Write the structure tokens for this entry.
Amino acid sequence: EAQVTQNPRYLITVTGKKLTVTCSQNMNHEYMSWYRQDPGLGLRQIYYSMNVEVTDKGDVPEGYKVSRKEKRNFPLILESPSPNQTSLYFCASSLLGEGYNEQFFGPGTRLTVL
Amino acid sequence: ELKVEQNPLFLSMQEGKNYTIYCNYSTTSDRLYWYRQDPGKSLESLFVLLSNGAVKQEGRLMASLDTKARLSTLHITAAVHDLSATYFCAVDTGTASKLTFGTGTRLQVTL
């Protein structure tokens, strides 16, 4: 089944404790992206990647890191989480070769930073 | 900076009624997407609109795009409870294939 998977789905952590949220897709998509969703703010892009070893900042990259060493994986790293990073996070991927960017979303990771 | 606005933000409608959700955006684009999100769930792609005048229909939902007016509409015909969800539009300006999302319209269909 074609899908985007994220782990963990739920995470409660404390301020300053490094964490990684994994994202994997099995559709051979070039493009991958991370979003955070907060009430009243819609979805905001954190980072995106056009292909392996190619990443760039989105609208709200502060406090986050990413890497794209393999085409299928795009982990999101929070080196020193803070309470304002409490949010619902989505990973998405798309096949850019069709000339448009219909993105397919993972199930989401609900992160709480105490 | 691209702005994408949706109206209304919240819509409560009775089963059987028709209504339209509006998505306005502030810069030139001919690529617009509609997504649905159920509470606590992920986003599901509904429609991809790729040119001026594009119209797509699926069941009771119909989406259209007017690139000159920078406006997309999502029309709901004879609403049913199963359509209750939050609907997002997203605009693709082609710059690094970035999508900018609207803040969403929460639709509640009541009996």
Remarks:
- Chain A has a mean pLDDT of 94.
- Chain A touches chain B through 26 residues (CB under 8 Å).
- The two ends of chain A are 36 Å apart (CA to CA).
- The longest strand of chain A covers residues 42-51.
